[in-house]
Each structure stands twice: as structure tokens, then as C-alpha cells.
Design brief:
Length: 123
Amino acid sequence: MTAEPYEPVIARTPDQIVESLNGDRSPRNIRACLPPADRGHFDKDYRQAMAKATEELDLSPVNDLLAHWCHIARMKATGEYEEVMEQAARVQEQIESGEYVQGRPLREVLAERAAALGVKLDL
């Protein structure tokens, strides 16, 4: 007989998730703020970053990963992630059809959004 790990289901509003992430950026809290479908990806990435940090004696990969996943959790909670992905799909279709796509460089937009959220990105 095998048992699945128990994870209590706590329904939180997007505002509660954002507030939680503002106050606690620990791996455990970031993981709890992610939708269940993303937690396996987080676990895999976190384990890889920890292994790299152990090998190189450098926590930078772990800190970078936590900043990334904190940003993803916040965007998914507020619905911004879906908006960004939909916009990206529209732009990709325009590019593939040969249309001119006017806009700002992606790095600039991401840096601006990250700064607004208080997240440091190395682009």
C-alpha cells in the first residue's frame, strides 16, 4: 500500500496569495502559492538548483530560481500570466505571418514588470 503525500487545500484569494508572497519568499510558501499543476515543475527545478548550489558552493542558482517562481506564482494568482501568454501567442502568429510587430523589447517590458513587483531579474 502506498500513500500520497497530504497537502491541505487552502483556498486563498489572489490578494491573499500576493500578500503572502510579499511577506514570505521561502521555497515552501512559494510552492504553496503555485497552482497544484505547477508544483511538480517547481519541485524539479528547485532540486536541480539545490544540487547545482551544493556542487558549486554558490546559492545564486537557488536565489534566482526562487525569484523566478515567486514571480510566476504572483502572475498566476492575479491572472496576468494567462494575459501575457495570450499576448505572446498573438505576437508569435503575427511574426509567423510576416506582419510587422510594433512594440518594445521584451527585456525592457519584463524588467519594468519585475521592478514594479520588487523582483530583480538578470536579463
